[in-house]
Amino acid sequence: MSLAAQHEATEQVEQHIKGPRRVLSVDMLRGITIALMILVNDPGDWGHVFRQLDHSKWNGCTLTDLVFPCFLFVVGISSVFSLASRAEKAGNRGKLAHHVVSRAARLWLLAFVLSFFPRMNWTGFRFFGVLPRIAICYLLASLLLLFTRNLRVLGGIVIALLVGYWAMLRFIPVPHVGAPGDWIGFLDPVDNIAAYVDRAVVTFTQHWFYTGTLYLRTSDPEGVLSTLGSLATTLLGAMCGLMMRRLSFERMRLMLISFGVPLVLAGLAWSHWYPLNKNLWTGSYVLFTAGLFMLTLAFCSVLVDGRTERWPMWLRVSTWPWFVFGSNAIFAFAFSNAIVKILLAVRYYDANGEAHSLWSSIYTHGFSHHHSNEWTSLAFGIAFVCFCFLPNWALWHKRIFLKI
């Protein structure tokens, strides 16, 4: 980065940190998460991906498996601050509920538009997905926060969600398969109750709406029942946000560590009987990941929260990209999704009559030179993240923050 660019970056960070008490660590974590989300979603070659930059096939947890739950965790925290800010601006409960429902509907509409773009193909429409899950979790968590901010009540709801979901997976018989038992694991990739419900939903939509598809064909990682686990993740973030609003930065970090470590250990302990599983969003996965996010947030807070002295240059430059990405996170995700679809949709034919997408052409000629490996695939992914950074930088520079 040039000296001029460094100077501009530091000035922009200076403007961002001014004003009333702001938990900058949340902005930073949101930006890191959305950058990682773009990176792991868009390698140059899916056949050559580092293990940690791909999802676990079933049980287990990689770096990639942490990305989406981290975003939902931050959604929970942000919902607390957003609702509190709106309540202070003469917003009664009815108006706040209308705002929450409207925002969730806009997220659904954005998901709908991106699903059709650019081919406008109805038959392959996917009702599940990242944005629909964000919309549902945001909607339910925010509505709950409008009616109660009691940590014990919210904690009880989280426990009920996790235990209830585990009981569904463990004890509800799967039609045409039978009850989970020794001869068939209750987390079988195909014959579990969550996968059955997903297939039933798609059968219904295919019959009545002539469309519907599952990401994994036999199930969907953003399916119906697994939403219970993801809602628990969002509520844990909301509970964290409620405590963060009441505490000084020093006590906030202590709180994050004191809750984060036990949650990680509880998740690991439960995983011996109830494995970490992102596709099913199991309870052990919820506890383990939420604990990790609290510890990560505490680390980010040490770096950026509550600094009274002028920030050193190294800190301003190193945190600036994450503030830029985090300032318009949904836009960054939607933009990356749209660009990928365009690059895959634009095709040409070579001299042998073989079709090639613009995406594969850029990767082959610009990065792999016909010798693809994990490093060339990663290089393409990083370059794509940098490309998606540019419009966010332009919005940040003009102080434009798009609200979905």
Automatic annotation (TrEMBL):
The keyword Membrane applies. GO terms for molecular function: acyltransferase activity. InterPro entries: HGSNAT_cat. Keywords: Acyltransferase, Membrane, Transferase, Transmembrane, Transmembrane helix. Pfam families: HGSNAT_cat. The chain crosses the membrane at residues 66-84, 96-117, 123-146, 153-172, 223-242, 254-273, 285-304, 325-349, 375-396. Residues 22-162 form the Heparan-alpha-glucosaminide N-acetyltransferase catalytic domain. This is Acyltransferase family protein. It comes from Granulicella cerasi.
